[in-house]
Amino acid sequence: MKKLKSLTFGLLLLGLAPAAQAALPVYDSASIKQAIMEFQQLKKQYDMLKKQYDEMVAMKDSMTGNYGMGILLNGIEEEASRRALPQTWQEVVEMQKKGFYGDLLKHYSDMLPKIDTNFLSANQKDRDVIGYKMAKGHTQSAFAATEAVYNQLDKRLKSIEELMGQIDQTQNIKQAMDLNSRIVAETGFVSLDLARLNSMQLSLQAVFQNDSNRELENHSEFFSQPK
Fold first, then answer.
1. Helix, strand, coil in percent for the chain, rounding step 5
2. In 3-state terms, what secondary structure has residue 107?
3. What CA–CA distance (Å, rounded) separates 191 from 172?
4. Domains of the chain: which residue ranges?
């Protein structure tokens, strides 16, 4: 009986053996290697695309954004200095008459003191009196305004030098372009000051021409009087 049971168990094991072998997975090493190679290739493509994307984002960032170049050396004090003089020349002359440029004019007033216009004529509406007052007022105004503008030109030069010193510190294209625009704006202010100086020179030339005309008129009137 025991022998029969042993034989039956042995046959049962033999019958189950093929089924157990069929349940185990079968691996194809060639397919696995091919899958790994394809994955590595996809990884390379992904890395390349990510690099291109990062470069495009960096390029976009380098051409956008606000870096504060517009307010560099362009605060309230600098804005006020650009408006140190009135908008019109007549306002400059009027302010000079009211003593607004006393500190700037002191040196020139000491060298060129005023004269009593009564020495020219008792009539204060006389051509010579009016001409003298006009020439004196315009000349002193030009001295004061020239001094003020010249002082601002030195500040402009220092500002431009300081702005140029920032060139090598820019981090990207946009920041460099903004800084360049700021430098161009500052040189524009210099050009404006130079234009003011040129306008003052033309105004003085007109005053001097008026003096010549006045002398000619006086000369003509003197010699045209009946003897």
1. 80, 0, 20
2. helix
3. 29
4. 88-222
